[in-house]
């Protein structure tokens, strides 16, 4: 599934990756995918905990050269 939007949250500390992700999710349609790039190690737990109760689905996350990339499908 192709990402509709890529959010660059590299270099931002908690809670900013979540704040930026929330805003970016408001800009896409239900069913579309947001890709988030961050260097915040706590983002794995934070984004997982944030997405599920809001009906979003964390499709995958991967570490690549100290950047964590998430793909989140808007619910």
TrEMBL record:
PROSITE patterns: UPF0033 (PS01148). Residues 7-31 form the UPF0033 domain. It comes from the Bacteria. GO terms for molecular function: transferase activity. It holds the Pfam family TusA. InterPro entries: TusA-like, TusA-like_sf. Keywords: Transferase. Signal peptide: none annotated. Belongs to the sulfur carrier protein TusA family. This is Sulfurtransferase TusA family protein.
